[in-house]
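Researcher: For the record, we're logging two predictions in this thread. I'll number them. Prediction 1 follows.
Model: Prediction 1, sequence and structure:
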Amino acid sequence: MDLNDLSMFVEAVRAGSLSAAARRLGTPLATVSRRVRALEAQLGVRLVERGRLGLKTTPAGQRLFEQASPGLELVQDSVRAVGTASGIAGWLRVSLPPTFEPWWQLVSRFRAAHPQVRLDVFTSERRVDLVADGIDVALRIGDVARADYVGRRLTSYRHRLVASRAFLARHRIARVDDVLAVPCAGFRAGPDAALVWRLGDRLVRPEPVLLANDYAHLRAAALAGEVLTELPPFLVDERLVQVLPRAPFPEVSVTAVIPERRYTSALVRAYIDFCVTHAPGLLVPPRHRARGGELLSGQRARR
């Protein structure tokens, strides 16, 4: 078997299409397509289905991708270690939640520290399947639900209950029960999910006037003076006022997760170590943000 054929197949699955793989590899599209077909001919089995939305692996292709990727990464790391001073180079595909703006800065700083790294950032509110979607490292908010993932805790934060000064001039909110009497907006976690807030030791269920799966939309509605809402702290600025600070939202963890496997590339390890070092203090309101931070311990992913 030609390892170049196998490498192009793996890159095509990671990139999601032959054309994207060709751009990453700096190789003509026709060459990548021919190599993948040649690999299928050698193995006597169809590995990918080509469609309007890109590539989809067959069951045989998915097995080959999952089993071949770690070995190819080990070979690529060895070549990079010889060719570069740090050995940190190549494509890194990371998954981030939407509107996670401070992490954009962290990713840019990682690129600046390792100029030979090229980043492919995939933003999605859904919990991606790292192997099927070809993701090297995903950022998870809250619990890590997959037993076949390895997680390393990076930092934590609490949402804030906020409103504009104009809104608070019209609505008095002195107690948790007052939340139920004002127009509220919240994050829609699913098609049938109700709005539930845990504020201190109280669980409240406001009747929302707005649900959105984008915190930027919730922030815009709060800034317009229309609603009381929840926001991550890094989206709160001086135009918004925190409401009921003595009844805080629960703390949520931010975890970097990777598939559980015997070998993790030097590039992935370097990115996670960089996040561990720089994530603490990153997800606070902009005026409170500081550089650096303490080192946090890793953890195994939990069911």
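Researcher: Logged. Prediction 2.
Model: Prediction 2, sequence and structure:
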Amino acid sequence: MTSTTPTLPRNPPEGTQALLFDCDGTLVDTLGLYRICWRQVFGRYGFEMTDEWFDSWAGHSMVPFVEAGLPDADSATVAAVAQEATDLFLESTHLLRPLDHVVEIARRHHGRIPMAVVSGGPRVAVVESLDAVGILGLFDAIVTQDEVAAGKPAPDGYLRALEILGVEAARCVAYEDTSSGMASARAAGITEIVDVRWRDD
């Protein structure tokens, strides 16, 4: 029998230098709202997004996500679509809820271990999401797609966070909910990766 609440290790390995958290689907339950926003925006451009497609691309950064849905779009259209979806999302952030099983870990170690958010989303949406659920102040750094050349699954975001915090990849823990996010952390040299979707059997 599978429980409905993931059980995660509350304490990182001894000697851990930093905890690095994805935002969407890891700290904040944003994916349901994003699914609604993207279905609406993509529909305006002729792409009927399915749940299966969304699930397979969730976790990628904005540009590759839009390009996957609209492969013939030029860069200006990709930027416009991304902005439309972000604006629509920002109108409804008051509906967001924290993912308590992960947030509890961040609260537990706040002030004891440096922590950062590493997200493939736009900075304005990430900051607003964290603030909407009251956890923005827990983190020492926030790295988004806006601060790096390539988003997830590339390692750039994690590498930037490691640089800001001045820590070693091999002594950090990453918390992720998608395969692309885990690939990003792994490519940055992080070996301790917690899949927050894991459940007890």
